[in-house]
User: Which sequence fits this backbone?
């Protein structure tokens, strides 16, 4: 009796476990050497010949063409890490790969997968408790935010500007939208355009949008602008039913044409009567309506994406309306300035000084597209790290100080675990040690010597591999301003453990061809 079709492939037992582990390890290995401030770059070439050079682990995994389902789980780890806290993607993927390596050895020593999973979960709890103990006390002030952002960007491609300078811009942007509650990451936009050096990067209090203005000439800047936003066409609606109108004479034709013109005028007058200076619409604007609005001095942007329209509405405090009928002054938003600038044949609309004052844009510049892409990834990491530090209310020493302390705490806890589960707990600690070893390797140091020095100096969790003046030394990361958000570390241990235990428990792979 055939339960599965003849085309189905099935791999079971140790073969399935081995195949899945090898696939996961391969993905982790592909990003492992990008870890840390001295991480190596990867060159990714697409089928069409497009080249991406980056040491951003999340970008590497995103660009890779991965088909193996277990390998996809490691990619999901990075994506989950990126969505939750925006940083630590490479560490999470690398740790998951190391846990799978330890799993492989444990399976060879006849440790049951369930025992391995239980041991890893026990070790994870110790890791999370240790992170809490290492979290620095006190308020996350601007100095700490600057250090967190700079740590996240160090080692990334930042063009001709230092991570410290970029970190200042990140802190300015974050503080601009920081309210009493949780900071909304969506309130901080990152827009990049080539054409000037990265030193021209600036913070814009408002929104920069890809927006097509109506008219042949670029509109002049509008000060103290009242902004109307419409999520619809400003044109006559087309009927869905085929219909014909019989016109018997010129008077009837003139009446039909005048009726259409009247509708166009009504739409334009609704905007003008509401005292709007700027109209933003996601749809198209009829030429007749656009002409009337132009004569009245209203600047019109059409075919704006829905997401961009919502962002502008948020920045200006305008209502996002589905029709122009009944538009009133209360529906309008406000901006100190609305202007259009051109960058390499692209027109960008700047809505600055919005009435809501809770949206800010980091406007990045770069000499080439390649430099600009890396700069955008670096600044995004810096913003994500700063937001995570504020929203979770805590930072920890960086430079692998946490990993060394966690590994030591897990080994101490392993002594109180009975049976073979103790082996899995100790294996988790060995996997965590791979993070400082990798940092030492990418910095050109001997990983064994570095690990020994770190263990000897890390009695209080305040010793890490700090890069100073081109050299790497064992020192207190806090004294050197190397800080990570505590939530990033917590998510690393959660996500890496979840992925590795999920793969460990799989003993049967059924594939349909």
Assistant:
């Amino acid at each position: 009796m055939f339960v599965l079709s003849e085309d189905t492939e099935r791999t079971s037992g140790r073969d399935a476990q081995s195949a899945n582990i090898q696939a996961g390890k391969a993905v982790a290995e592909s990003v492992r050497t990008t870890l840390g401030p001295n991480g190596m770059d990867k060159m990714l070439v697409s089928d069409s010949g497009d080249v991406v050079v980056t040491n951003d682990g999340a970008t590497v995994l995103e660009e890779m063409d991965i088909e193996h389902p277990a390998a996809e789980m490691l990619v999901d780890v990075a994506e989950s890490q990126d969505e939750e806290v925006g940083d630590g993607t490479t560490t999470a993927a690398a740790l998951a790969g190391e846990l799978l390596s330890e799993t492989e050895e444990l399976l060879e020593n006849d440790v049951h997968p369930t025992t391995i999973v239980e041991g890893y979960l026990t070790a994870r709890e110790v890791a999370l408790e240790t992170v809490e103990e290492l979290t620095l006390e006190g308020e996350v002030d601007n100095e700490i935010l600057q250090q967190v952002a700079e740590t996240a960007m160090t080692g990334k491609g930042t063009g001709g500007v230092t991570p410290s300078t970029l970190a200042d811009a990140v802190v300015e942007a974050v503080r601009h939208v920081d309210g009493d509650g949780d900071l909304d990451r969506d309130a901080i936009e990152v827009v990049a355009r080539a054409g000037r050096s990265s030193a021209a990067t600036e913070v814009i209090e408002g929104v920069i949008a890809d927006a097509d203005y109506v008219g042949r000439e670029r509109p002049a800047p509008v000060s103290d602008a009242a902004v109307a936003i419409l999520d619809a066409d400003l044109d006559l609606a087309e009927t869905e039913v085929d219909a014909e109108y019989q016109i018997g004479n010129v008077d009837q034709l003139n009446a039909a044409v005048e009726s259409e013109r009247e509708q166009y005028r009504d739409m334009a007058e609704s905007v003008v009567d509401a005292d709007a200076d700027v109209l933003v619409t996601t749809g198209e604007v009829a030429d007749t309506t656009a002409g009337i609005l132009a004569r009245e001095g209203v600047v019109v942007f059409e075919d704006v994406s829905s997401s961009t329209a919502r962002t502008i509405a948020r920045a200006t405090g305008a209502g996002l309306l589905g029709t122009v009928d009944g538009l009133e002054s209360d529906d309008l938003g406000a901006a100190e300035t609305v202007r259009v600038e051109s960058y390499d044949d692209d027109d960008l609309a700047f809505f600055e000084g919005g009435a809501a004052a809770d949206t800010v844009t980091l406007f990045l510049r770069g000499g080439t597209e390649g430099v600009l892409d890396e700069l955008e990834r670096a600044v995004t990491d810096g913003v994500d790290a700063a937001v995570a530090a504020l929203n979770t209310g805590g930072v920890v020493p960086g430079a692998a100080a946490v990993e060394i302390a966690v590994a030591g705490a897990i080994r101490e806890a392993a002594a109180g675990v009975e049976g073979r589960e103790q082996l899995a707990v100790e294996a988790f600690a060995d996997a965590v040690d791979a993070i400082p070893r990798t940092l030492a390797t990418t910095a050109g140091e001997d990983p064994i010597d570095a690990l020994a020095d770190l263990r000897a100096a890390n009695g209080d969790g305040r010793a890490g591999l700090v890069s100073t003046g081109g050299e790497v030394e064992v020192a207190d990361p806090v004294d050197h301003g190397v800080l990570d958000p505590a939530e990033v570390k917590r998510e690393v241990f959660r996500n890496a453990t979840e992925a590795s235990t999920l793969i460990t428990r799989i003993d049967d792979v059924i594939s349909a061809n």
